[in-house]
Amino acid sequence: MASRRHPVLASVGALLALVALLGCAARLLPEDMQALPYVPYVIALSPWFVLAAMVSLVCACIAHRWFTAAVAVACIVLQGYWQLPFYRNGEPLGAQAIAAVAQAKPAADDAFARVMTCNVYKGAADPQAIVDAVRDQHVEVLALQETTPQFVQRLEQAGIGDYLPYAVSASSGSGYGNGLWSAQPLQQPADAEFPSSASAMPAGTIRFDNGALPVRFVSVHTTSPTAQSWDLWRKSLTEMQQLTARTGTQYVLMGDFNATYDHAVFRDLLGSRFQDAARASGHGLVFSWPADKPWLPAFSGIDHIVTERGVVVGQVSTMRIGGSDHRALLATLDFTRH
Q1: At a CB cut-off of 8 Å and minimum separation 6, what does 187 contact?
Q2: pLDDT at 3
Q3: Whose CA, among 61, 183, 200, 204, lies 20 to 30 Å from 24?
Q4: pTM reported for the whole predicted model
Q5: For the purposes of burial, counting CB atoms within 10 Å of the CB of 167, is it exposed (0-12), middle (13-18) or buried (19 or more)?
Q6: Can you say whether the dihedral through the CA atoms of 20, 23, 25, 27 is positive or negative?
Q7: Torsion over CA of 238, 268, 324 and 230, rounded to 10 degrees?
Q8: Source organism's superkingdom (predicted)?
Q9: Are strands 251-256 and 274-276 parallel, antiparallel or unpaired?
């Protein structure tokens, strides 16, 4: 009788349970099937399906639709299993690391770094805002994606060289490029760290701890999943897995991966060697895209800072940069315990 008194709630609950179930099913698909048309978009929304499941559960309980309620509970449990690790406290940054990155001028004799990455949206981002962020956040290594020669020129005019005087950049056939800027010399600079079908991903090695600790940074930009590039999207992420075989090099990969942690191809890239900084820090879910619509908050975490397992990560945050459709992502890295 109760369900007849609440036909609308029963219908809404069933519909939302179906939405949540489809979202969970997409997350469970094997890597190759996750590259099917539009499936990457569904998976990118994975954390939000728990809200649909929660509303479904409330509606189902009021309407006494117990099967619907059971489906909703199952979806909530699954999403909790996948997303709650982002909120588990990782190893905290030590006082020495926090003090080191608080200095206005980065020191070359320590093993700590404040890093930042941002997609500058085809060179449309405000270069002064980026320089201001570098100054205010005491950034030591900066990775940018979708740069143009004109943007790099404006960035130099805005004073990036006053804080990060060393740089390596590269462009691709699309006319957009990627770059790295550093407070310390970039040794063994490369326009492309590995062959990629997506873009040239420049790299350079920075020697921390008085030169005793070399760390190689890469500015990453993979192919965006679109109606013309589903397979290329997966391919560009799979190509990055060749870095896992380079065991003699310690990497930090920063940039626009066009994938969230929920995409199997991104988790396969991490494997047993790498870690996602936001997840490792226990900061919580970090959403960096989109950032160019005042009426729409960022809802997808496709930008990442990826480090070797064992690197201690903290002070993870995002920052809006005018003109960009991505929020900048920042983190503090402690290499002393790796």
Answers
A1: 204, 205, 206, 207, 214
A2: 43
A3: 61
A4: 0.95
A5: buried
A6: negative
A7: 50
A8: Bacteria
A9: unpaired
> Residue 66 CB: number of other CB atoms within 10 A?
11
User: Nearest to residue 275, comparing CAs of 116, 139, 91, 145?
Assistant: 91
Q: At what angle do helices 127-137 and 149-157 cross, to 10 degrees?
A: 50
pLDDT at 63: 93
Tokens 């205010």 belong to which residue? 136
Could you give the angle at the alpha carbon of 129 between the alpha carbons of 222 and 292, nearest 5°?
55
Report whether 239 contacts 141 (CB < 8 A): no
Q: Copy the structure tokens of residue 304.
A: 């990442």
Cβ proximity of 259 and 302 under 8 Å? yes
Q: What is the 3-state secondary structure (H, E, C) of the chain?
A: CHHHHCHHHHHHHHHHHHHHHHHHHHHHCCCCHHHCCCHHHHHHCHHHHHHHHHHHHHHHHHHCCHHHHHHHHHHHHHHHHHHHHHHCCCCCCCHHHHHHHCCCCCCCCCCEEEEEEEECCCCCCCHHHHHHHHHHHCCCEEEEEEECHHHHHHHHHCCHHHCCCEEEEEECCCCCEEEEEECCCCEEEECCCCCCCCCCCCEEEEEECCCCEEEEEEEEECCCCCCCCHHHHHHHHHHHHHHHHCCCCCEEEEEECCCCCCCHHHHHHHCCCEEEHHHHHCCCCCCCECCCCCCCCCCECCEEEEEECCCEEEEEEEECCCCCCCCEEEEEEECCCC
Q: Which residues of the chain have pLDDT under 50?
A: 1-3
pLDDT at residue 1, as a whole number: 43
For the CA atoms of 169, 172, 178, 184, the dihedral, rounded to the nearest 10 degrees, stands at -20
Q: What is the pLDDT of residue 104?
A: 83
Note the pLDDT tens digit of each residue in 267-292: 999 999 999 999 999 999 999 999 99
